[in-house]
Amino acid sequence: MNTRIAVANRTKETGVSLIVSLLMLIVVSLLGISAARIALQGEKVSRNDRDRQIALQAAEAALMDAELDIEGSPDAAKSRSALFASDNMLAFPATGCKAGVANIDVGLCSAAAEGSAPVWQTVDFLDASENASSVPYGRFTGYSFPAGMGTLPARQPRYVIEPMMFAYKGYAAEKPEVFYRITAIGFGMRDSTQVVLQTFYKKADK
Fold this sequence. Notes:
- The chain is of the alpha+beta class.
- It contains one helix and four strands; from the N terminus they run H-E-E-E-E.
- The chain has one helix spanning 2-71; strands at residues 135-136, 158-166, 177-187, 194-201.
- A hairpin with a 6-residue loop joins strand 3 (177-187) and strand 4 (194-201).
């Protein structure tokens, strides 16, 4: 009689142990899956952040290239700094932006009318054709910007330049000076990763 009770108890205990083991296995599996998802999410965030940093650096490079364009290109054969006068905006169009990458005045945009949206918002920075209205990096400075492979930006950064007017306090209001708003776009390893930066620049007095 006692032997039968011991066997029954042992069988019952074995069944409970199996259930507990299965539950523990499920919990460990869920923890493993969660850890894998967190690791993959972290990798994705890191990859996206690196892509954005690449686009940011490309946009900063385009801003510096535009400043050299205004100030005076190191490549005298390509320089158009004479178009950026401190006392007039004659080189800039009345409306819109000049197009045609081969043209000397490409990327020069009109001053926005008071109360209207700035012209740079109408520019298609994704257009890299010969009829584009933005300037590719190095067009007027002779510098090169590697792109299109590996961890490099998917495409070259671009920029446009708009004239702005101001007058120093105490100076004659009828003789304002010109400074410029530069808008540049940089790309990451993917076309969809884009960073747009702006800066205001005044040409140095000679």
